[in-house]
Design goal:
The complex is a heterodimer of chains A (213) and B (333). By secondary structure, chain A is an all-alpha fold. Chain A has one domain: Serine Threonine Protein Phosphatase 5, Tetratricopeptide repeat (Alpha Horseshoe). Chain A has eight helices and two strands, in the order E-H-H-H-H-E-H-H-H-H. A two-stranded antiparallel sheet of chain A has the order 1-2. Chain B folds into two domains: 174 residues, Dihydroxyacetone kinase, domain 1 (Rossmann fold); 125 residues, Dihydroxyacetone kinase, domain 2 (Hypothetical Protein Tm841, Chain: A,domain 3), CATH 3.30.1180. In chain B, the strands form three sheets. A six-stranded mixed beta sheet of chain B has the order 1-2-4-3-5-6, with helices on both faces. A six-stranded mixed beta sheet of chain B has the order 9-8-7-12-10-11. In chain B, helix 2 packs across helix 3, helix 4 runs antiparallel to helix 5 and helix 4 crosses helix 8. The N and C termini of chain B lie far apart (41 Å). Classes of the chains: A mainly alpha (213), B alpha/beta (333). The interface between A and B is large, with 34 and 37 residues.
Amino acid sequence: MAGVDVETLQRWLRGFAASVAEQRDALTALDAAIGDADHGANMHRGMTAVTEAVTATPPADPTALLKQTATVLIRSVGGASGPLYGTLFLRMASATGGETVLEPATFAKALRAGLEGVISRGKAELGDKTMVDALAPALDALDASLAEGGSLATALHAASEAADAGRDATTPMIARKGRASYLGDRSAGHQDPGATSAALLVAAAAAAVSGDG
Amino acid sequence: MKKLLNDPGDLVAESLRGLDRAHPELRVDHENRILYRADAPVAGKVGLLSGGGSGHEPAHGGFIGPGMLDAVCAGEVFTSPVPDQMAEATKNIDGGVGVLHLVWNYTGDVMNFDMAAELAAAETDTRVEAVVMNDDVAVEDSLFTAGRRGTGAAIAVEKIVGAAAEQGRNLTELADLARRVNENSRSMGMALTSCTVPAKGSPTFDLPDDEIEIGIGIHGEPGRRRVPLAPAHDIAQMLVDPVLADRDFTGGDGVLVFVNGMGATPMLELYLMYGEIAALLDKAGVVPARTLVGPYVTSLDMAGCSVSITKLDDEMIRLWDAPVATAGLRWGM
């Protein structure tokens, strides 16, 4: 595949929604350990609303779809995940210009803009034990693979592996942002729920672009 | 899990429906989950908006009415409401002289209220100021945390600022007063048991029968440390010591002492705790000028308590004593 069209993006969002539904209790259990036991329920509510909106009012192009996804997430999730995931998709929408097919480099640039939005909204840095710890290495791997001439599918698989590794690396970290930071040293030894859902997002993108989503 | 429920997914909506029936003096927008005092917007009065996740009742909806808040946005259980709700409420309580957002310091609440203020600024000409309330000494206030949590001090802020708003003070004065009450407040909480979030169905953390959590928040998040269960006298000391260590509460016009129940602790035990806490304050030369004892900022069915102390001045005492008519606090009218 040369690029990312609106159908591929829809596959991505539906795939992410399905992973969140499947991992809902696991995400909530991770959040119960160091947060407030609602990450699975909140993301499930938000992604269910996103897929319902896609079915009810299917957007014409990638930009419109990303924008609609952002609006629905900001409106339906609440907590910290709503503004953070909503900002990610909103910045992705702003980084695209209404093209019907996003070139791999444009898609990568949009994801990068999304990550920067998350960082500016949440003020988290790498190593703070947040979703940034999965997304930042994933996008570095994506850029590196594309620069080496890899296909978008190959590059997203590399990104997904990096996101999983980044997620796993949050376990020993001491949280510095969000509710887990209230625990101080006691937050170490637990995998971060936000990094876990972010790794699912990257995995769903790889599956959607490979056509096996 | 044994709870009075139909479907956990409908809990917040159905509870709001009941609250609406029980309190005709409130107006409830069920679609947007916004609670208003019935006569909002009050012309010429600054509108006061707060809100947060559900599960803290009577906070936040129980503090709407003359002398306190104008509206509250209700989120899912322990989940911040969303910017659309806050922007809508802001528009509907603007009596022409602006709206003050009183925000409990949690990552989600702060981000959503920020986005709401941006939305309100883009869509209307309502002037909005926001004050973030952060009184919990269990959390170190540093670059390495999300900052101190907003807990019991919010009741003092909302009551005192609510009375001042009723007197017609302007937005800037009210924001300054809110910051002053917040800066003069410190809190510390403890849990005897975890709470059970209905959507999860089991306790958020396991706490053995012979252990307690010190330094908990109001969302069932575990505390700073776990210690063996101790007599109430010792627990009072564990709560009062860090509060008094963080700020000088002696002298002046005395303090407001607020002993809060976390939801499942009986008043009988809360008054016992107040007695222990008052004795410790006597010893430290801190004079309780006003007191509030009861479950006002709860954490679902958690057992335990928190203590909040606010250093008062003459003006704050007058505003605390001013009439208030809400479901949660009512005196003087």
